[in-house]
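seq as requested:
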Amino acid sequence: MDNLEEDLTCSVCYSLFNDPRVLPCSHTFCKGCLENVLQVSSNFSIWRPLRLPLKCPNCRSVVELPPNGVDALPINVCLRAIIEKYQRDGQPRVPACPEHPRQPLNVYCVQDCKLICGFCLTIGQHQGHTIDDLQTAYIKERDTPAKLVECLTDRRWEEVCTLVERLEQEKARYEGLVRQDREAVVQFFQGLERLLAHKKELFMKALDGVNVRLACAYDPLIEKLKDMKEEQLDLISLSSCVGEEESPLGFLEKVHHLRERVNALAQTVLPEVPLLHISPRAGDFLGEHWANVTIGRLEDGPVPKISCSVKGCSTKGAPLSTSGQAWFRFQSSMAAVFLLMLLLLLLLLWFDPVGGASLGFSILSQISQAVKSLAAELTFPLHGSGTFLYCMLRDLGLKFSSYVSALGESTYQHVAFFFKTIQLC
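struct tokens:
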């Protein structure tokens, strides 16, 4: 159909031929197009009178026209008839049924709202359906949109608005419930965090207690050995200073004093390293007692009482063990030593201040050796309050021994002068 329309189109105006005329060269053009071409050609050419030149737009051949011009050209009757028939057939046709070929869709099915053919109504899928003419159905439904909108603008609108407001209220109410649940969840887990933090603090306190007992067991031994190291360094330094003494008497006194300190240091008993046993271990206790603890019974979760004892020894059922006997022996010895020391010093210093002070200083040196030997026996760790007493007494013995050893010749002279003054008075 498109190719036919191209063949029926004028090559000058590109439209369907209107009053087609045939030139001597057999080319066909519209009458109006040829008149326009003839007018342009006659304005720019010199031709003999009574003859009008026309150049064919297709083949460019010149044709002489009689004086009456384009009207003298013959009409292409066949082409005009073809164009008229083409124009009639080109009007819109009624569409054909896709299920029944060559059957026009000229019936409107009211039930399915679509055009159907006669076969669809009689033998097809639309048997028994209500039908109508398309134009009649169109006229019947012209006022339907306005009526439908009226139904939506009255009571229906109020119902929709009321329902929207109610839905928003219900949504806000349930959102409030969700916020309450959120706060409940936060408070619940905050309570769990506080409870767990409290349990953790109790565990840490138990472990801190173990650290205190470990310090009481090891710190005195470490301090004693550090003091021995310092004493040994002091003796080494003192030995070099003794050799520089020029006075024979001074040299002998310093050597005697150095010998006493060296003998005291060499006779000091080195402590044994205590091997402790910490029970129960936190990891084992948590795995045994806390692995199956539920949230409801979290507050009842146990906290261990961690003990720190000597490996291989038990402290139960032995209230008067070797440690207890050593404690009583040390207490009795200390009391007797101090009492004897006071009595001797008072008597000697009263009757003979100078000689008593010299003899008292010698007695103090011997007492210091006794105290150090008693303190060296306490190399065992005790438990609870016994550990504290052990640390206190051991430190007291070491301090007393160091103090007595540190008394020099100047202290001896001051004591003698003091008691001599008292006697004279």
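The longest strand covers residues 52-55.
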